[in-house]
Amino acid sequence: MSEDNPQVTVTSERLQRVIQALSFASVDEFDQCVAILQESDEQDEFRELETAFSIFVQELSEAKQQTERALVRVESANRELEAKLETIEMQQAAIRELSTPIIEVWTGVLCLPVVGVVDSQRSAEMTETLLEMIVAKQARTAIVDITGIDVMDTKTADHFIKMARAVRLLGAECVISGINPGIAQTLTHIGVDLAGVRTMRNLRDALQFHLRETEQLAAHVKRDHF
Question: Are 94 and 87 in contact (CB under 8 A)?
């Protein structure tokens, strides 16, 4: 062996120590691994290998700790995001409830005042809520008041027609009130067929219609009874 490449003699004890250190490193026991590697006090080329291995393990340990801290931050951010999403969902539910206030204006009479734009999603939500209330209150008449709607197009009109049909399937009468002259002209111009849908000029007319219907029904029952 030349002097430039001197032979290094390594005892079995040192080799066993390195193997043990590797075993600890494989199970993320980095402190134990470094402690074992630092037990050696020999000063030779193999010691340089042990030192390099020790430095590598320490850097690996720090990288692992940084990763764990990053994961904790990500998990915390995810929990915060989930909490915000839950809050948003609750707020949206509250907004939907406020935007679809169904009022029992008379015994057996529900009123759904509609304000703003009515798209497919909102129409479905309003219809579902209205049908549930009809069943819960055993309502005979549902008044859908559209006084708060300024513009009516074919799609919007179709939403209300489908809503009225769904109400009739439950055995209740659906009355659409609040059709102003401008909406009436628009519906006529675009050719919307409201046949089979009872319409009233305003909420008062719709309530008076219900009272007349109730009185006529009561009178009819009374005649049949006697």
Answer: no
Separation CA 137–CA 187 (nearest Å): 32
Long-range pairs, 63-66, Cβ under 8 A, ≥24: 64/28, 64/30
Do 168 and 131 form a contact (C-beta atoms < 8 A)?
Answer: no
- Walk along the chain (226 residues) and give the pLDDT tens digit of each residue: 445 566 666 667 777 777 778 777 777 777 877 777 777 666 766 777 777 777 787 888 788 888 888 898 999 889 988 888 888 877 776 666 666 789 998 888 999 999 888 888 888 989 999 999 999 999 999 999 999 887 788 888 889 999 999 999 999 999 999 988 888 888 888 888 777 788 998 989 988 888 887 777 666 655 665 5
Is residue 202 within 8 A of residue 177, CB to CB? The reply is yes
Q: How far apart are CA 144 and CA 113, in angstroms?
A: 6
Partnered with residue 110 across adjacent β-strands are 104, 142
Q: Which of 34, 38, 39, 43 is nearest to 8 (CA)?
A: 43
How many residues make up the chain in this entry? 226
Structure tokens belonging to residue 63: 């990288």
Name the β-bridge partners of 2. none
